[in-house]
Amino acid sequence: MYHILIVDDEKIERNGIKLLLKMAGIELEISEACNGKEALSFLEKHQVDILLTDMKMPNMDGMELLKRVCPEYPQMKKIIFSGYSEFEYAKTAMKMGVKDYILKPVDPEEFKETMDKVLEELDQQTIIVMRE
Fold first, then answer.
1. What's residue 88's pLDDT?
2. Edge-to-edge strand list for the sheet holding 100-103
3. How far is residue 127's CA from residue 120's CA, in Å, rounded to a whole number?
4. What is the 3-state secondary structure (H, E, C) of the chain?
5. How far is CA 103 from CA 29, 69, 126, in A?
6. pLDDT-based confidence at 58, cuts 50/70/90?
7. 40: Cβ–Cβ under 8 A, 6 or more apart, which residues?
8. Is the pLDDT of residue 84 over 80?
9. Given a cut of 90, is residue 45 above it in pLDDT?
10. Alpha-carbon distance 115 to 17, whole Å?
11. How many CA atoms lie within 13 A of 100 on its CB side?
């Protein structure tokens, strides 16, 4: 089972993502962090396959988190969900290897499509590793 870390300073948003995963029938081991600093600490101790992060958070925002995580965990799939549609954020994030940028409020169908795509990529990575 794949492991997802949901990073958002608002518990209601984290709960909403968990509900979307359940509604989409996507079973994952789910962990949560309320900011980038807490997420980094968690990642030092746990293996995570998917990082789903908000951008605007206290202590350490999503962009700073991604700047630290992308070089350290290149195999991890990274997705941004944010209420801010700033092109520069999206452009910078994509250059760092972020898979998708989902705007809040999150559209359930778009969310499911993104998650399906990411899970398929993880499955493909697993197959490649098993062959080696």
1. 74
2. 29-33, 3-7, 50-53, 77-82, 100-103
3. 11
4. CCEEEEECCCHHHHHHHHHHHHHCCCCCEEEEECCHHHHHHHHHHCCCCEEEECCCCCCCCHHHHHHHHHHHCCCCEEEEEECCCCHHHHHHHHHCCCCEEEECCCCHHHHHHHHHHHHHHHHHHHHHHHHC
5. 23, 21, 29
6. very high
7. 60, 65, 68, 69
8. no
9. yes
10. 11
11. 18
Q: What is d(CA 31, CA 14) in angstroms, rounded to the nearest whole number?
A: 10
Cα distance between residue 44 and residue 38, in whole Å: 10
The amino acid sitting at 53 is T
Please give the C-alpha separations between residue 83 and each of 56, 89, 119, 123, 131, in angstroms, as whole numbers: 9, 12, 24, 30, 41
Rounded distance, CA 41 to CA 45, Å? 7
Closest CA to 50 of 64, 32, 34, 68: 32
Q: Which residue has the tokens 């807490």?
A: 38
- C-alpha separations of 86 from 41, 69, 91, 98 in Å: 27, 21, 9, 15
Contact 21, 28 (CB under 8 A): yes
Residue-wise pLDDT tens digits, 7-44: 999 999 999 999 999 999 999 999 999 999 999 999 99
